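Homework help thread (please don't just give me the answer)

Our assignment gives two proteins as sequence + structure token strings and asks us to describe the second one. The first is just a warm-up. Here they are:
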Amino acid sequence: MLLAALAVFVVTLVLVVWQPRGLGIGWTALAGAAVALGLGVVHAGDVPTVVGIVWNATLTFVALVLISLLLDESGFFSWAALHVARWGRGRGRALFAAVVLLGAVVAALFANDGAALILTPIVVRIVLALRFPPAATLAFVMATGFVADSASVPLVVSNLVNIVTADHFGIGFTRYAAVMLPVGLVSVAASLVVLLLYFRRAIPRRYETEALPRPATAIEDPVVFRAGWIVLGLLLVGYLAADPLGVPLSAVAGAAAVALLAVAARRPAVLFRRSSSRGAAGTSPAGTDGPAGPGAAGRRIEVGRVVREAPWQIVLFSVGMYLVVYGLRNQGLTDELARLLGFFGEHGVLAAALGTGLVVAVLASVMNNLPTVLIAALAVSAVGASGPVHDAMVYASVIGADLGPKITPIGSLATLLWLHVLGRKGIHIGWGRYFRTGIVLTVPVLLVTLAALAGLLAAR
């Protein structure tokens, strides 16, 4: 049965990565789950267990991506990126650092996929406007994609795997942030240092800020833009209040997404009357590129299209893929992993953190981070450790699943989509080149972050 479970997992993963034409990742994973059920690798009674593990994480993730897409349509991220580009004051390395830090903030608040897939095209437009050479463009693009994952450590909502792990072990938003926010800051700092060192020769010394458009011209829908700030503030308050009230994060993120959708779906003729009258009065004539020009007059966001573009397939994928993974657990694979993690745990907090994090990172780079994090969570539970050693294993598994995928292109679905987006923009990164860069960037940041986690837990 173990061989059957492994075969179903491998074939399902290959098809998910390959994505045969006409099949989304969700339907492919569900097909794998159906085969696993048919072979008896998993049982009907496992279905509600798996759904109970993944429903909150996947719905939270979908809601956050919806919010990200709406804000992107309003010009929110382009506006922020243009401000950041100006903060560099013509210095290439300052611009590089600012872009990395912007990516870190976006990843922490909007999840890693949103940071990689939304910010990358914006960064590409900026470096092309600045007429950077291809090597510099590649440096900025790789940095944006890398920090999207390395900065997805600090909050529960920063990565889908964070939510899955936190739900499995009953870790609330505040408790998680108390540990992982400082660790996440270390990860971002280490990422910035490693990226600057690695790409130092490719980053231009100077650039002309005059080539950049004014940030105000990026705002496409000022009403959604302004509402976005309010929604983000309320979203943070909701996260903090969710723990004591026992409210799932998906309800908080879902309410925020619905609120922003309602604003985006309003009647423009009513809400833009003031903008139109200002233009008519000559404050900022129509046809100019100022904040009250065409952008501020409001390009209506196609709400239906945004909703359709949300990653609904990830819901089906989570249920289907995790059922396949649960079959590996049923056949004893997680018990073997638990023995290995238990060995690390016998040697203290540092060994538990480094050992667990590195093993999970390798597994995530080979078998994708989403199935890996469930296997890791089940294995850590089977170890039966307690105290700081248990905490080290739990949080190290998150770090490994967050950073490990950057080693290979197949480590996460977001990376595959990111490479596809770049290819459509004429930027081609081969898998061999990606691996050579990914492993050099990831390993030192992973080790420093795991060491910071061990030091924090040992000091508590």
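The one we have to describe:
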Amino acid sequence: MHRSYAAIRRAGAITPATPAGYRFRRMGEGVSIAFPPGAIFGEPWIEIGDHTLIGERVSLSCGMGPGLDLGPDSILRIGGSCSIGRGSHIVAHQSIDIGDHVFTGPYVYITDQNHVYDDPDIPIGRQWPRNSPVSIGSGSWLGTGAVILPGTTLGRQCVVAGGAVVRGEFPDHSVVAGVPARRVRGYSPELGWHSPVPLDV
């Protein structure tokens, strides 16, 4: 049974050489999306760089649903040599850009769209959502269960603590933690890793 399931997983993986891989705008050399995948649609607007590994049950989506025309440009870009942990969801509508060598723990959620509640008389789920681009710098690590909300920009080599809920802009070499997430450590050549002064929080 275990040998059979291992063979099924190998056969079910999505790679550049499989028919499902051809649907992506770009799927680089050595990319593998593990079987079973999560919800995957909007592949013509998804780019994945070389040697990136995507765990099982990871959802990658562009737009509200399959079959939409989302325009001429890529919407979701994942760099090279990344590792996306199992059960994670990356939900793009306008722009999510993930740099090279980004690693995530399992069950990370990244989105560039959120519901709004501007009109108090209309159910929130029926109000038109609002988009804001997301950028995650190369070399960053996102811990288990982290949530990256619309409008977030993480610089290079940032660490996001497990369970953090992140919105806002954080410079290179930031450690962010909490709900809502705050910058709890930073790096400079003069001080090394240090806690930021209060004005930097």
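TA reply:
I won't write it for you, but here's a hint about the kind of observation we're looking for: The mean pLDDT is 94.
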